[in-house]
Design a protein that fits this description.
Length: 160
């Protein structure tokens, strides 16, 4: 099955874009925890991931960054009730994390946006047209979600 066909029928690629609705910007797990608690959670995740990106296996220092990993919050969206539920955390290399937050990355300039696009293509084995189509759909979904105020469900913390 070709990349475009796999994307059309809804299979989930290894690396996805996760644009947080604009109405939820700056309200997240990180903002609700103390610096010490956030540091502890993310370092536990890095250990679970054996200090490698959980998507591509990379490390930031090999990509030219000063650090190896960043911690990303995984969210599920209940579209009917506008609940943004935390499902867990994932350790990501900086390049995968830039793809996850492609909207923000795009504001960092053309070079960063291109770097993220190329990383998305490489990890998912996509052509540029497939990747660009996927990015367009991600922004459409973000636009629709940004029309609503979301309630954060952080009940995952009780098990963390």
């Amino acid at each position: 099955m070709g990349d475009a066909q796999a994307t059309r029928i809804g299979s989930s690629p290894p690396l996805t874009i996760e644009l947080v609705p604009s109405t939820s910007w700056r309200d997240n797990l990180r903002s609700r925890l103390s610096n010490a608690a956030w540091k502890q959670l993310r370092h536990q995740q890095y250990q679970r991931a054996q200090d490698r990106c959980e998507i591509c296996g990379g490390q930031g220092k090999q990509q030219g960054y000063r650090w190896d990993l960043e911690c990303h919050e995984i969210w599920a969206y209940d579209e009917a009730h506008h609940i943004q539920k935390l499902l867990g955390l994932v350790a990501l290399c900086p390049d995968c994390h830039k793809v996850k937050h492609f909207g923000r990355t795009s504001t960092e300039g053309e070079r960063e946006a291109l770097r993220a696009l190329l990383h998305l293509m490489r990890v998912n084995h996509w052509t540029r047209p497939v990747a660009e189509s996927y990015i367009h759909r991600a922004f459409q979904q973000w636009g629709a979600r940004s029309q609503h105020t979301w309630v954060l469900d952080l009940s995952w913390l009780e098990t963390a």
